[in-house]
C-alpha cells in the first residue's frame, strides 16, 4: 500500500528526465499497437483505451501470440508498446522481432532491466518495481498508473486526480479488505467481474487474478453483455463485482436487482458503491485491488498458495 505511494512519487520526479517519454510523445500520430500475454495483455488493453481517450490516437490491441505468428490483420503504424513484466515471455519476444522487421519502433515495458525485452526492444521502459510472486499484482497497478499519467501529461490534461487517488489508495485497500472479509467466501465458487471500456480491461484482469490465485471459476464481461447469455449460470454461489461508471447508474441499478433476484451477491465498486471510489477513468489502476484481495482471501480459505498456482511459471516460454 505504502509502496504504491512512494513508487508514484519517484515516478513523477523521474518523468521529466525520461528520454523514452519524449520519444513516445513524438510518435503518436499513427495507429499504435498494444501487445502482451496474460495479465500483460489485460494491461495493454486497459492502457490502450485510455490512450485513445486522452490522446485521440487510434490503437489496436493483440495477444502477443497472434503478432508472433503473424495471424493479425495487416499491421499499420510506427509505434508498438510491448508489455511483459518479466520481459522474457516467448511470444512477446517473437512479436518484438516481427514488428521490428515491419518497421515499427518497439517500446518494451517491463520491470526487469536485464530481460531480453529490455535489451531487444528499441525503447526499453523499465519500471523499478520488485515482484517475486508468479502471479502479477502490484506491477499491473503501478505500470497502469504510470502509463495513464504519461498519457495525461502528453495530452496536457489535468493530473491532479492522480495525487488524490494515490492518497486514497491505502484507505481504498482497507475498505476493500473489510468488504471482502465480510463475505462468507466458502459459499461462492463462481466469481464474475463486469465493467466497460478501461474498466473492462480491469475486469478481465480481476477475473484472471481470482482464477490464478484461488483456483476458482472466474469470468469477466463488458457490463451489459452479461445479460446476453452468461447470466444463465447465476445461482446462490455466484459473487459479482460491478465496476461502476459515470452515466450508467440506472442500468447498473437494474442489473444489480436482476442478478440479486437470481440469487447472486453483487458488490459495486465506484461512486456510492459498496467499495467507494471515484468513477473517473483514472481510478482504473486501483480497481483490480478488490479482486486481488478476493483472490488472496479465497486462496487462504481453500488452503492453496495465492503466489504459486499449479502448472504456472513466472515466465511462460514456448
Ligand atoms: C505474462 C503471464 C502473467 C501471469 C503468469 C504467467 O507474463 O501470463 O500475466 O500472471 O505469471 O505469465 P509477463 O510476460 O508479463 O512476464
Automatic annotation (TrEMBL):
Domain SIS residue range list: 20-164, 179-309
GO BP annotations, alphabetical order: carbohydrate derivative metabolic process
UniProt keyword Repeat present: yes
A GO molecular-function descriptor: carbohydrate derivative binding
Entry keyword annotation includes S-adenosyl-L-methionine: no
InterPro entries recorded: GlmS/AgaS_SIS, GlmS/FrlB_SIS, SIS_dom, SIS_dom_sf
Keywords carried by this UniProt record: Repeat
Top-level taxonomic group: Bacteria
Pfam families, sorted: SIS
Protein name (database record): Glutamine--fructose-6-phosphate transaminase
Native source species: Thermotoga neapolitana (strain ATCC 49049 / DSM 4359 / NBRC 107923 / NS-E)
Amino acid at each position: 500500500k505504502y509502496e504504491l505511494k512512494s513508487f508514484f512519487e519517484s515516478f513523477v520526479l523521474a518523468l521529466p528526465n525520461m528520454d523514452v517519454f519524449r520519444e513516445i510523445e513524438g510518435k503518436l500520430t499513427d495507429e499504435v499497437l498494444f501487445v502482451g500475454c496474460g495479465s500483460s495483455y489485460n494491461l495493454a488493453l486497459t492502457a490502450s483505451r485510455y490512450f485513445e481517450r486522452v490522446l485521440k490516437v487510434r490503437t489496436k490491441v493483440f495477444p502477443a501470440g497472434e503478432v508472433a505468428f503473424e495471424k493479425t490483420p495487416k499491421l499499420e503504424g510506427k509505434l508498438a508498446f510491448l508489455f511483459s513484466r518479466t520481459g522474457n515471455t516467448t511470444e512477446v519476444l517473437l512479436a518484438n522481432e516481427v514488428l521490428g522487421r515491419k518497421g515499427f519502433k518497439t517500446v518494451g515495458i517491463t520491470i526487469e532491466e536485464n530481460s531480453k525485452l529490455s535489451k531487444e526492444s528499441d525503447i526499453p521502459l523499465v519500471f523499478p518495481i520488485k515482484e517475486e510472486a508468479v502471479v502479477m499484482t502490484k506491477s499491473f497497478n503501478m505500470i497502469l498508473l504510470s502509463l495513464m499519467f504519461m498519457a495525461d501529461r502528453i495530452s496536457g490534461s489535468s493530473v491532479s486526480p492522480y495525487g488524490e487517488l494515490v492518497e486514497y489508495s491505502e484507505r481504498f485497500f482497507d475498505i476493500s479488505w473489510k468488504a471482502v472479509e465480510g463475505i462468507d467466501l466458502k459459499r461462492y465458487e463462481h466469481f464474475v467481474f463486469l465493467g466497460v471500456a478501461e474498466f473492462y480491461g480491469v475486469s478481465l484482469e480481476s477475473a484472471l487474478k481470482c482464477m490464478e490465485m484461488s483456483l476458482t471459476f472466474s469470468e469477466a464481461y463488458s457490463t451489459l453483455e452479461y445479460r446476453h447469455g452468461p447470466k444463465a449460470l447465476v445461482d446462490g454461489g455466484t459473487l459479482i463485482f460491478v465496476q461502476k461508471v459515470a452515466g450508467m447508474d440506472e442500468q447498473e441499478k437494474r442489473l444489480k436487482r436482476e442478478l440479486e433476484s437470481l440469487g447472486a451477491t453483487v458488490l459495486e465498486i465506484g461512486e456510492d458503491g459498496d467499495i467507494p471510489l471515484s468513477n473517473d477513468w483514472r481510478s482504473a489502476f486501483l480497481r483490480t485491488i478488490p479482486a486481488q484481495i478476493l483472490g488472496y482471501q479465497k486462496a487462504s480459505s481453500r488452503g492453496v498458495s495465492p503466489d504459486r498456482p499449479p502448472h504456472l511459471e513466472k515466465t511462460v516460454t514456448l
